[in-house]
Write a structure and sequence with these properties.
Blueprint: H1 5-36, H2 49-87, E1 94-100, E2 103-109
Antiparallel strand pairs: 1-2
Helix pairs in contact: 1-2
Length: 110
């Protein structure tokens, strides 16, 4: 991707979004787990509600950020691939059904 400047910029933006989303998701899962775990070992459930709310909020925020990062990666790959197609030689293939000396057959020309 480093040879295509616009694809590289798009890829770097995608990686930034994915990293931010992954950190938010990891922190959210960790906060939710810590908030719902009973560390005292005593019977009775004690949930740290503010920590659970914070963790759930971070998880909800992380999902659109990760989706945007994934979309940007696909867009960067499309930009890069379009640049490759314009510089390479493409061969044209032709597939047809025709009469041959043995009957009806498939002819492929390339």
């Amino acid at each position: 991707m480093k040879t295509n400047e616009s694809a590289n910029k798009e890829y770097q933006a995608a990686m930034r979004n994915i990293m931010i989303g992954a950190v938010c998701l990891g922190a959210g899962v960790g906060a939710t787990l810590v908030g719902t775990t009973n560390f005292s070992g005593q019977p009775g459930v004690h949930i740290n509600l503010p920590l659970v709310i914070l963790g759930t909020g971070l998880e909800i925020v992380a999902i659109p950020i990760l989706l945007k990062g994934s979309k940007l990666v696909k867009h960067a790959a499309d930009i890069y691939n379009d640049g490759l197609q314009s510089t390479c030689i493409q061969s044209k293939t032709d597939l047809s059904i025709a009469l041959t000396e043995n009957g009806v057959g498939v002819i492929m020309k390339f």
